[in-house]
């Protein structure tokens, strides 16, 4: 329920609307913070603030994530808190607490889901949102797989929602590293020359080493090239092969054509596109 549009308004009214506990202070009620959504255009995000800024202001759905988890969907969490995407334009604020890690395992670590395109969304990250590391490539010369995205915005058209991601001090938003490329094919040579031709046992060399997986926001490295065996030079049976390519890094933030403002006071590893 919105605050009154005129007349007397008190700090206690703000506390009731926005779910603040005592003691109450005006500095807690800046727009885009942990209590007040950015949908309230008359409420400043910094500087001078007054009770009169809060006429007709409405509370956001605040989702506090205080335990580590895998592959979280904001729409699912908001729906459980009473949000109805088809008709609801209530702003949503997601707070990921310090020490909490939201991780990916096979898909995006944190995704928005198909929220109403008119709902503002603010994500405050004091913990970590980390994409998964891609798998290493296998023999022979298989490419490593791509790392997973940390934060994924669903593709929605239209709407007037404002999207803000605050990576706060100590917070991390990190795309997964790409997997290392598989090692290259081993080479082989026959072990002796007989009447001008090569024959005998094939002496194989070694497969190339598997490339290293990338760190957060980094591609995996290329696998090593295979080596020849110890047979007679010129009696090649199988040439060594180059290693497979490393996998691409996952995105720290995949916007999918949405306009997303990122404020970074922590660590962002990987691309935002």
List keywords for this structure.
273 residues; mainly beta; five-stranded parallel beta sheet; 2 helices; 5% helix
Detailed description of the structure:
It is a single chain. The protein has 273 residues and is mainly beta. It has a domain at 11-139 and 149-179 and 248-269. Helix content is 5%, strand content 24%. The protein is built from 2 helices and 17 strands. The protein has helices at residues 11-18, 74-80; strands spanning 61-65, 69-70, 72-73, 92-96, 101-103, 110-111, 121-125, 128-130, 151-152, 163-167, 172-174, 188-194, 197-204, 236-238, 253-254, 260-264, 267-269. A 5-stranded parallel beta sheet has the order 1-4-7-10-16, covered by helices on one side. The radius of gyration is 28 Å and the shape is rod-shaped.
How are the strands of the largest sheet arranged? 1-4-7-10-16
- Structural class per helix/strand content? mainly beta
What is the radius of gyration?
Answer: 28 Å
Could you report the average pLDDT, rounded to the nearest whole number? 94
Total helical elements: 2
Topology order in helix (H) and strand (E) letters:
HEEEHEEEEEEEEEEEEEE
Q: Beta-strand level of the residues, as a percent range?
A: 15-25%
Task: Give helix % range.
Answer: under 10%
The biggest beta sheet reads: 5 strands, parallel
Distance from first to last alpha carbon: 36 Å
Backbone shape: rod-shaped
Total strands: the figure is: 17
- Poorly predicted ranges (pLDDT <50, ≥5 residues)? none
